[in-house]
Recover the amino acids of this structure.
């Protein structure tokens, strides 16, 4: 470690501190999402940030970008391969099975919030540590829950004041449809192999559906007239997609079917969806939230056949898109307590506690600085009122209460401190 002495200490690339006032905006977004989750009967799941690596390899899929090149994987001191979670679904399924939750209740609805880690190319809206909020529902195969989850995502973004939303839905088909579509797609792309980017030339053999959402312009040209997955869906998958759309229409959620919407995680079966924001400056990172069905995953990880669906959204992208300034979410300082002298400072301790117990936001000055400096600070903090206590006030059993908006002040009996300050706060 000694060679690092003198090197400037910085956060790890692609991982960010969240300072005030942005942290207040994050808290507001999280409060809003939790309220929507609770209103829909979802309960909170908290899982560890690391898991044994095979969990992610088996759930997300070996031939995905996440597993191939983005996971933070290392051996721990016991020589076990562990990975910083790149997403939350795999851990939710692991926890579901590990704790036998389905035996207690055939329908389990969970939500989670926390940091995820992917070693991606860091840019605006794409980070190596990012914060997701997501839901997972197990045991319900009916398309109405798909519609309800999509509507939840839209409701969260809309209540945060985000406009210009676009909701895209698709079906990637079930296990019986996918091979047929995969074959048709490979037949279309194979003769154009040379025009694909090197990544997609490889994907053609491992995971050809991923070519559909490659951002490279030459790949986009090659898939422009590719066969549509919608033409390869069996009756069950088609009926399910129709059911999702009927649900969305019943809920008044405007949406568009996007047959090229394939997602980067291999566990999806049937419904996939994304909510994007149009306009803004997020570029290719304009997908705020996304999800879909993964009806085969619980069984693949050793559980009983259990339909499942979920979504997650990225806190950073939502915070960047939400129009309200972060300062709006910070608590307003109701009262600043200025002390003149050591005895007065002790008296301020109790006075501040009384004010807080009455629900006011109160901050006292602990440093022995001049009253002038204290007023300056109160002003800078935007305090609604200042309470001044000095030796004279202590002796007389009063306090000085200053209205910072009106620029007036009055002497108030100490016993009326809370009532008078509250009254002042209510004044416009
Ligand atoms: P995902 O599409 O990989 O899905 O991620 C969901 C959301 O997380 C994205 O739409 C985006 O807002 C955010 N996100 C992903 N990667 C980054 C990044 N590097 N930087 C910033 N934000 C990012 C999942 O993770 C699935 N587990 C969702 C799901 C739940 N499907 C079923 N259940």
């Amino acid at each position: 470690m000694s060679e690092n002495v003198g090197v400037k200490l910085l956060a790890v690339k692609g991982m960010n501190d969240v300072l005030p006032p942005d942290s207040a905006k994050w808290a507001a977004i999280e409060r809003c999402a939790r309220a929507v989750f609770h209103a829909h009967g979802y309960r909170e799941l908290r899982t560890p940030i690391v898991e044994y690596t095979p969990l992610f390899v088996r759930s997300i899929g070996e031939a995905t970008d996440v597993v191939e090149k983005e996971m933070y994987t290392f051996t721990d001191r016991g020589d076990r391969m562990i990975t910083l979670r790149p997403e939350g679904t795999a851990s939710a399924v692991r926890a579901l099975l590990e704790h036998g939750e389905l035996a207690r209740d055939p329908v389990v609805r969970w939500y989670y919030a926390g940091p995820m880690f992917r070693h991606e190319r860091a840019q605006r809206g794409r980070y190596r540590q990012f914060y997701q909020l997501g839901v997972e529902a197990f045991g319900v195969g009916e398309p109405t829950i798909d519609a309800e989850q999509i509507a939840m995502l839209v409701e969260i973004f809309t209540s945060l004041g985000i406009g210009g939303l676009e909701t895209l839905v698709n079906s990637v088909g079930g296990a019986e449809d996918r091979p047929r579509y995969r074959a048709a797609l490979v037949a279309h792309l194979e003769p154009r192999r040379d025009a694909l980017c090197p990544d997609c030339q490889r994907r053609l053999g491992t995971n050809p559906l991923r070519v559909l959402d490659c951002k490279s312009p030459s790949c986009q040209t090659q898939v422009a007239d590719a066969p549509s997955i919608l033409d390869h869906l069996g009756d069950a998958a088609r009926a399910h997609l129709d059911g999702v759309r009927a649900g969305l229409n019943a809920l008044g959620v405007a949406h568009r079917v996007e047959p090229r919407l394939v997602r980067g995680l291999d566990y999806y079966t049937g419904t996939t969806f994304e909510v994007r924001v149009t306009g803004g400056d997020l570029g290719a990172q304009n997908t705020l939230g996304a999800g879909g069905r993964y009806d085969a995953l619980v069984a693949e990880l050793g559980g009983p056949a259990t339909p499942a669906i979920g979504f997650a959204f990225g806190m950073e992208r939502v915070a960047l898109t939400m129009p309200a300034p972060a300062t709006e979410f910070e608590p307003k300082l109701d009262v600043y307590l200025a002390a003149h002298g050591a005895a007065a400072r002790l008296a301020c301790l109790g006075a501040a506690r009384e004010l807080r117990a009455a629900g006011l936001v109160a901050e006292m000055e602990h440093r022995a600085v001049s009253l002038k400096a204290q007023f300056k600070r109160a002003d800078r903090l935007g305090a609604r009122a200042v309470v001044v206590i000095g030796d004279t006030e202590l002796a007389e059993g009063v306090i000085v209460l200053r209205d910072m908006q009106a620029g007036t002040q009055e002497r108030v009996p100490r016993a009326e401190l809370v009532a008078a300050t509250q009254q002042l706060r209510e004044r416009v």
About this structure: The chain has a mean pLDDT of 95. The radius of gyration is 28 Å. The longest strand covers residues 108-117.
